[in-house]
Design goal:
Helix 4 (102-130) packs parallel to helix 5. The protein is built from 7 helices and 7 strands; from the N terminus they run βαβαβαβαβαβααβ. The chain has a single domain (5-239), classed as 3-Layer(aba) Sandwich (Rossmann fold), CATH 3.40.50. 43% of the residues lie in helices and 15% in strands. The protein is of the alpha/beta class and 245 residues long. It has a 7-stranded parallel sheet, with helices on both faces.
Length: 245
């Protein structure tokens, strides 16, 4: 049986690394595309114990590096079964609207939203050959916001819309779905407070594993009747009415 292949952007740390670990355990060959070479160097020894994985330095907001990653996959593995668009500026600049520069706005848009489009555009032909799938990582901020997170929230709402556009445009050969994580703690989980966990109807803050297992399902044939959807994985926080007493 030929091992499936996945490309994960921003897979060198955080949620992306959790997805890489899960897919490797499930028999995928994985190419991680990202800009944090130090994080990749730290992650790769552990990831390589799980399966075949490589790192490609790639600024997803620029077409040439994205095409180079896809060409590497074509030349070395000859197929692509899954694309995970996870790369993003994770920490939105919390500035009043009058203090946000156009360059700051455009940089977030370029990486978070344009990057996902460029990756899907470059990967579509290979994914079409395998009846593959795309998973885009959105955020619960597509539906609710903290103050002064304009560009980040806008990109995550854009990811949700891009997802259903890809599903309609690339189907039936390629499926596309999104995951909108809520509070996902990448490290220092044991330092969270009881009140942090209590905010969640499920009773705890999320982990990368929570997103990774959902991603693996959406990439798999078991999700073959699911496309164009956004799955909010937030422990129920966006459904909880909050009152101050």
């Amino acid at each position: 049986m030929i091992a499936p292949v996945a490309l994960i952007t921003g897979g060198e740390r955080g949620i992306g690394r959790g997805i890489a670990e899960t897919l490797l355990r499930r028999g995928y060959r994985v190419l991680i595309a990202g800009v944090d070479e130090q994080a990749a160097e730290e992650a790769l020894p552990d990831l390589k114990q799980l399966g075949e994985v490589h790192f490609c330095k790639c600024d997803v907001g620029r077409p040439d590096p994205v095409r180079s990653c896809i060409e590497w996959i074509r030349e070395n593995w000859g197929r692509l079964d899954g694309l995970v668009c996870n790369a993003a500026h994770a920490d939105p600049a919390r500035k009043p609207i009058g203090e946000v520069s156009l360059d700051e706005w455009q940089e977030v848009i370029r990486t978070n939203l344009t990057g996902a489009f460029l990756c899907a555009q470059a990967a579509a032909p290979l994914l079409g050959e395998t009846n593959g799938a795309i998973v885009l990582i959105a955020s619960s901020r597509a539906y609710q916001s903290e103050p002064n997170t304009f560009a980040y929230s806008a990109t995550k709402g854009g990811i949700v819309a891009l997802t259903h556009s890809l599903a309609i445009s690339l189907g039936p050969k390629v499926r596309a779905n999104a995951i909108a994580p809520g509070w996902i703690q990448n490290e220092d989980y044991d330092q969270l407070r009881d009140i942090d966990h209590a905010q969640h109807p499920v009773g705890r803050v999320g982990t990368p594993h929570d997103i990774a297992t959902l991603c693996a399902f959406l990439l798999s044939p078991d999700a073959g009747f699911i496309t164009g959807q956004d799955f909010v994985a937030d422990g129920g926080m966006t459904r909880k009415m909050i009152y101050a007493y």
